[in-house]
Design brief:
single chain, 129 residues, alpha+beta, Nuclear Transport Factor 2, Chain: A, 7-stranded mixed β-sheet, 29% helix, 47% strand, globular, Isomerase, NTF2-like_dom_sf
């Protein structure tokens, strides 16, 4: 898989309607040692822990979905991409109220072949001056 296809597969896991769909998407792009963290989530290691994080997100923000807000910017085995979380109900994360949309970006580390994600670190909101 290309870096872009890997990120698209990963991103699709967050919008899957079922636990099975989440697990199937992660099986294609995640490893047992891969890690995920963001400002409100302790580090999740492996596909089982990340699936639990995504299921919690789906329960906390029913009807919410994530759309890409940038192309993937990659060099060597690292990259970054922006996203936009849209929700039918107001969003709040890390003590900040975001309204119906929250932007953010992810830093990503890929396997040497680009087909698996080794690490995702998510950030909420715009960069501050």
């Amino acid at each position: 898989m290309t870096h872009s296809a890997t990120v698209q597969t990963y991103s699709s896991a967050w919008s899957q309607a079922t636990e099975q769909g989440i697990r199937e998407a992660l099986a294609l792009c995640w490893t047992p040692a891969s890690t995920y963290t963001d400002p409100i989530t302790p580090t999740a290691t492996g596909p089982e822990e990340l699936a639990a994080v995504i299921l919690d997100f789906r329960a906390r923000y029913p009807g919410a979905f994530i759309v890409p807000a940038s192309q993937l910017d990659v060099h060597h085995t690292v990259g970054r991409f922006a996203w936009l979380l849209k929700s039918p109900a107001p969003l709040e994360a890390d003590g900040t109220a975001y309204g119906l949309e929250m932007d953010g970006f992810d830093y990503v580390e890929f396997s040497e072949d680009g087909g698996r994600i080794l690490k995702i670190t998510g950030f909420f909101g715009p960069l501050r001056a």
